[in-house]
Amino acid sequence: MSHDEDYLFLSGIQHMAFCERQWAFIHIEQVWAENIRTIEGKHLHERTDNPFENETRNDIRVVRGMPVVSHKLGLRGIADVVEFHRMAEASEGTTVRLENRRGWWRPYPVEYKRGRPKIDNRDAVQLCAQGIALEEMLNVSIESGFLYYAQTRRRLDVTFDQQLRGQVHELSRRLHQLFFEGKTP
């Protein structure tokens, strides 16, 4: 990708994984209707999207509402939460330094969802896209992240394996194609 204005919303990859037509209605035609689920989702994200509520608990630095961009995917967005876990020592390619923080830290994206885990991986592709963006931004490799589901109050560990990464790249390619063509499937 060459121009930031050509970048699409990272959150759209979740819509694309669920239904190309739904993605096109939202992102091409800009047709969106609020409903009880979207309102509940907004309430869930009120705290996670506030970049001024960052905190450190023990050996975990919690950064909320972190802007992310992937030049490879041509996607930009906001990660709900990125947790940085303090590591005992540096690990080349997986740890970073944080400004005004001592030690080495390993990043993990955390995506908050209103409902329950899905039978497919539409939420996982969004999380993995955030991981890919963080990899580019921080020059590290990120093996996994977490999906937190408000309805079950559980978080699931998601491994960013080659199959999931491949699906993210394919979905990204497809949403750029549809956006460029201006077609609603």
List keywords for this structure.
single chain; 185 residues; 35% helix; alpha/beta; 7 strands; seven-stranded mixed β-sheet
How would you characterize this protein structure?
- It is built from 5 helices and 7 strands, in the order E-H-H-H-E-E-E-E-H-E-E-H.
- It has 185 residues and is α/β, with parallel strands linked by helices.
- Strands 1, 2, 3, 4, 5, 6 and 7 form a 7-stranded mixed sheet that branches.
- Helix 4 (122-138) links the parallel strand 5 and strand 6 (144-149).
- The two termini are 24 Å apart.
- The mean pLDDT is 88.
Count up the helices: 5
Compute the gyration radius: what is it?
17 Å
Q: What best-fitting shape do the alpha-carbon axes yield? A: globular
**What proportion of the residues form beta strands (DSSP E)?**
25-35%
Average pLDDT figure? 88
Report the uncertain regions.
Answer: none
SSE run: EHHHEEEEHEEH
Helix/strand-derived category reads alpha/beta
Helix content: 25-40%
Terminal CA distance = 24 Å
The main sheet comes to: 7 strands, mixed
Number of strands: 7
